[in-house]
Amino acid sequence: MSEPDKIVPAGAPRSDPLPTEPMQRVPPAARLAQWHAWVAWIALAIALFTALWMWPRLGGLESEATRRLQGADQRVTELEAALKYAQDQLRDTQNRTAVLEGRVLETAGLQAQVEKLYRSLASDSTDMLLVEIESALALANQQLVLGTHPQVVLGALQEIDLRLGRQDDPSLAGVRRALLGDIDRLKAFPAADVGALALRLDSLLGTIDMFPLAASVRAPAPRPASQRGANGEARGRAARPAGGSGAAESPAGAADPASRATDAASRATDAAAAGLSALRDELQQLFRVRRIDTPDAVLVAPEQAYFLRQNLRLLLLNARLALLSRNEALFHNDLERATHWLRAYYDGEHRGVAGASAQLRQMMGARIALEAPTLAESLAATRAARAAREARR
Questions:
Q1: Contact 305, 213 (CB under 8 A)
Q2: Between 20 and 30 A from 139 (CA), which of 35, 100, 196, 267?
Q3: Which of 221, 353, 347 is nearest to 288 (CA)?
Q4: 362 is a domain residue
Q5: How deeply is 374 buried, as exposed, middle or buried, from its count of CB atoms within 10 A (0-12, 13-18, 19+)?
């Protein structure tokens, strides 16, 4: 058997081989088994060392895992309870939702019925409103034809316009437009106030009995205060006694004869003036001079004064009837005749007669026969709206 070969690493200095004992050559299979045994023992040692090193840590990890598993079990239990509660709540909610859905369906049905009823009622209310508006417009038009003051009719039309505004129906826009046009025409209409004129005639009718006639005797006009004071002073001086001038006497009681004669003469003059004034007053009570342009007024007997007043009252009543019937020609004619009677048979200087004549002349300038506007446009629009609603049905 030969000596085993020696393996010399590369680069190593070569030396002479030492003389060795002859060794027995080991087969490769044995050497490989030997290497496997060594690796196994090393691995076992490493495993033992690792097991000894990891044993405490594995115990801690096991306890931590056990604790966490217990916590997870507890949480799972809680989650199961919560899930059961949520399922119960969901089941309850589903039941309630089913009930609510049933009620919603019932409510929807009721709402549909209510809407249908509301549309029916709205249609009926609009129809009733159109009927009422038509009747109100017809009545207002009739009042205008009969001579009612346009302001009264204007108030009724404005009330109808407010009702149309509250209704807020687009189909009534034409009616409201026509109504507003009639309102503007009534506002621009220059109508006379028949009621005020009738009241003024009534007041004149109540004062006829206080008007003095031209043939009646008037009380004398009072004289001015200055003239009455002068006459009274003259009478006072005349009434004094002849020797009653004690205030003008001297303290010694002696008087000049010339001054006494002058005083006597002045007193005599004053007495004569007072007598003449009294005589003039008496003569004025007996005789009066007045200018009368109509001699017939003087020839009226006292018992005929009643008929004169009744005739004037009848003229004013006829004028009032003509005013209410809007007969302008007859109204002016009666007022002119009443003014002529006042001027011819009544005392024109009396304040009441003068005021009545002025009022009659003022009323003669009023125009009462103006043609009032009609409400034909509003009536036509209302009837057209009613016909359109009936055609849609």
A1: yes
A2: 196
A3: 221
A4: yes
A5: middle
The set of residues, in sequence order, having a beta carbon less than 8 Å from that of 3 and lying 6+ positions away, is: 20, 22, 23
User: Does residue 339 sit in the same domain as residue 351?
Assistant: yes
Band of residue 318 on the pLDDT scale cut at 50, 70, 90:
very high
Q: Are residues 181 and 296 in the same domain?
A: no
Contact between 198 and 321 (Cβ < 8 Å): no
Largest CA distance in the chain: 226
In single-letter form, the type of residue at position 72 comes to A
Which residues make beta-bridge pairs with 346? 213
Positive or negative, the CA dihedral 296, 298, 301, 306 is positive
Question: 3-state DSSP call for residue 204?
Answer: helix
Helix (H, G, I), strand (E, B) or coil at 289: coil
Give the tens place of pLDDT for each residue, 154-207: 888 888 888 888 877 788 888 888 888 888 888 877 666 777 888 888 988 888
Which residue carries 């048979």 as its tokens?
Answer: 345
- 386 and 296 in one domain? no
Is there a domain that residue 165 lies in?
A: yes
* Contact (Cβ atoms closer than 8 angstroms) between residue 24 and residue 1: yes
User: Distance (Å, rounded) from C-alpha 369 to C-alpha 387?
Assistant: 36
Q: Which residue shows structure tokens 């009536």? A: 379
Most confident of 21-35, 268-282, 287-301, 322-336: 322-336
What is the crossing angle of helices 351-364 and 328-345, to 10°? Answer: 160
Q: Give yes or no for a contact between 173 and 381, defined as CB atoms under 8 angstroms apart.
A: no
**Same domain membership, residue 385 and residue 300:** no
- In the three-class reduction of DSSP (H, G, I as helix; E, B as strand; rest coil), residue 6 is classed as coil
Query: Is 230 a residue whose pLDDT tops 50?
Result: no
> Residues 200, 151: one domain?
no
